[in-house]
Amino acid sequence: MIVMKFGGSSVANGERIRRMGQIVKDRLERRPVLVLSAMGDTTDHLLEASQEALKEGTVSIEKIQDLHLKTIEELNLKKTAPELKVLLEELRDLLAGISLIRELTRRTRDYLVSFGERFSVRIAAAYFNSIHIKAQAVDAWDAGFVSDSNYGAAELLPESWNRIPRALEPLAEKGTLPVLTGFIAKDEAGNITTLGRGGSDLSATTIAAACRAEEVQVWKDVDGILTADPRLVKNARPVEEVTYEEASEMAYFGAQVLHPRAMLPCIKTGVPVLVKNSYNIGAPGTRVVSSLDRKAGPVRAITSRKNVTLVDVVSTRMVGQHGFLEEVFTAFAKHGISVDMVATSEVSVSLTLDAVHDLGGLKKDLAKIASVEIKTGRAIVTIVGDVRRSSEILSRAFGVCVVLGVQVQMVSQGASKVNISFIVNDTQAAEVVTALHITFFE
Length: 442
Fold this sequence. Notes:
Blueprint: E1 2-6, H1 14-25, E2 32-36, H2 42-56, H3 62-74, H4 81-101, H5 106-130, E3 135-138, E4 146-147, H6 160-173, E5 177-181, E6 184-187, E7 192-194, H7 199-210, E8 215-220, E9 241-243, H8 244-252, H9 260-269, E10 273-277, E11 286-289, E12 299-314, H10 324-334, E13 342-344, E14 348-354, H11 360-366, E15 371-385, H12 390-404, E16 410-413, E17 419-425, H13 429-441
Parallel strand pairs: 1-2, 1-8, 2-5, 3-5, 4-6, 8-10, 9-11
Antiparallel strand pairs: 6-7, 10-11, 12-14, 12-15, 13-14, 15-17, 16-17
Helix pairs in contact: 2-4, 2-5, 4-5, 6-7, 7-9, 8-9, 12-13
């Protein structure tokens, strides 16, 4: 078995669904299971409709309805229209309820956005049947996906691992192509939940791990995981192979291809992930595996993340005393602020945060034990690669910074031993990434 996940851009309209159909048809002998996202911008349109219902008391599903009914028409799937219209009516009723009570809970929002995936799998399965490929649309909860009740960012429960093979293997044995909703599940009370960021990829990798699939194919609109952001570096190119840990670090520090959560099931079982481009089928893509032969260069990729806040905390009163770091991190926990990077000494600690927080209360608490300096407008530049060659990487990287006249403000080597990250000003990040790419790849 292989698991094939197609993102929203890969099923955005009738033409893209036909292209997906050809990709799947060419791989039928490998017994694929499909996992689909919502079509195109459907999730955004659903959220827009919910805000209109909430704030203006109006029910509008025209954008959503037009896209899906037009796609049915393009693909000549008239028999599917009644089934889709039932779901559209259910959606309209839900929005009417929101408009009446003027309330949108997290649970209701999850129910609302689930319609996108439920629409897409029904259209796709009908299309496969129309081209004589026996297929069945399957909602995730009917395939064994059960989660906790943390609406908006639910976690799958351990029992999903046993339920998923029991639900899917009979379909495979009958020669039926399962077409599953990604991103959604149900909790034990039967309420629809969503799996949060990277949720559709997580659905696919969980199926692959639970069923011991040969591989997961994640079909997107890029040629794989690239050596740098192509918007910054024109000569960025696909990386042939990376480890799970390297891919996770790339994603966390700026490469928006695979979310780190999505790789956890594969890390457990060693199932490889292949990232492919549905717009460029001939491109080899990137293979994500458990380990690599380290004959390649020292660096796999260079990423950056802008709009970062740097917090410097210094306390000479704590010299020789224990508990300084504990007090610092207790303050962050109290205010619910997540830390990204950390560099420490006995009397000081530097940390980076996303720039979305109100830090007034945190600064007040930290000022009780130390002097605090908060610097905004910073960027993290991350070099992902073979950190056994960290001295070489650091020497060359900081040599680039010297030539550019860029002051490095903090350095951190991750415990995973596959990344070296440092802080520069936001305005310098693109120049640094471009120059590092030239140094290591060009």
